[in-house]
Amino acid sequence: MHISLLLFVSFCLTSTSAGSSVSQDRPSATIDSGVVVGTSTAIPPAPHKIDKFLGVPFAAPLQRFSPPQKETPWQGIYDASTHKPACIQQFDFPEEDRARIIKWLNTPGPPAGESEDCLYLDIYAPPKGKEPKAVLFWIHGGVYLYGSGSLPLYDGSILAAIHDVVVVTTNYRLNVFGFPGSPEIPEGQRNLGLLDQRLALDWVQRNIAAFGGDPEQVTIFGESAGASSVDALITSPPHPLPFRAAIMQSGHKTLHPESSDSEKSWKKLIELAGCKESDALQCVRKKSALELKGIVERAALPFNPILDGVTVSKTPRRDRLSSINDTSAIARVPVMMGTNANEGSMYALPLARNTTEEFLHLVLSYLYPRGRPKGLLEALLKAYPLGEAGVKTEVGRMDRILTDVLSQCPIKFVADDSALVEIPTWRYYFDAGFSNSALFYGSGAYHSAEIEMVFGTYNTTDAPAFQVEVSRAMQKAWTDFAKDPIRGPGWGKVPEIASFGDGFRPGSSVEGKAVLEVIAEDLDKRCALYKGFYTG
Prior knowledge:
Its EC number is 3.1.1.-. The active site is at residues 224, 343, 447. The chain is 31% helix and 15% strand. By secondary structure, it is α/β, with parallel strands linked by helices. Strand 9 (213-223), helix 5 (225-235) and strand 10 form a beta-alpha-beta unit.
């Protein structure tokens, strides 16, 4: 609930987090742990300001490699006017790869740097009304190695102001700090980053009403590893369920679940850190965060979730398919999922020196480490001929293959499974590229390109009118779904697919281009080539 600061004027209270005096006209809320004070911001063309509460703690101070605990109460007023640090980031060497990822996916980076003290979330809230608002809870991506809820890309101000929803973005622990592979840690406590997400959702259930949000109208949404996290919450749900709907953008955690690299990486880490196996966990706990960060980045050690049966189901596809008879198997909530037209472009560019055949050898050795099915390589080369629409170069060909293999086809299979067991399921497709957001010439609708369109955080100073229209349509679809997930985002359920952007690219004409259309053509025509791998 909002509290008048006039009650505190005579006491000249100071901020818990920054030690500065608090202005009377700043918005405040009383939550489980105390009073928080934020800021108000005007977002044209909205007729009202929105309130921002940044860097609000949802957990007690952390003990390294231990599960998160509920936040501790504070005395006085907590100043929630600025972002708090991101969790420790991992950008692997060599320097060329590291610099490229930072430039493409982390610029501008976390506004407050990074720290182990990082379990904070940000709330963007419109003015309270007679009825509580729907809530959108965002889980960022970054292959579980990097990322932050405080990145400017994820600013929820426009969604809150224009579409009258409450937006929450959260941090969670990453890399070795979030997914340590130590055998000394109980299996159910190793996915610390996913436990962090669950605690943040618990915080929302307990506190979001103070910001005008409805804890019974929470939609979780995320992109890439964030979408994978959303799917993990669906297929291995917390109890009681802290959300009523879900959106998965370019990611899943259902098909072909893999064993984690974390245990192997942990063994290498303790070797490089000079620790003995007999007391490895204690030894690594004593190392500085900066030293551990340096080791994992230079050795490029991957740390990611394990199939623990607690936060990640060991049989997610079977659980989804059996849920029509066993409704407790998964969270049978309405779901929207989709992909971008050029999911593979940023991964294909560094492989430009390879031919498609050489590239396919790499892909198939990954998909089928024990040997690929006979004739598959030849079938793939035939299925992606050069000269076809959108496939004019070897790099474009690789982009198309990676898009199908990594995103489009698996999302199709998950959506089909979901619809098969009568879960309300919608699918979207983002197919537009704009010069003010391109990663490089020809990057197209690359992996993560839709995020700024959904949040409205693209560069508006030179945005063409068509980009503005596409972004508004996507914002409306996402928020309409959050407000009424039974009715849906505004188009028919699977097998229909809503396409945003109509293939627009820099330099092309907008004449005749549709902002949103239901696709008639078969986008998934090559997915049969991968069905055996993903669903067999």
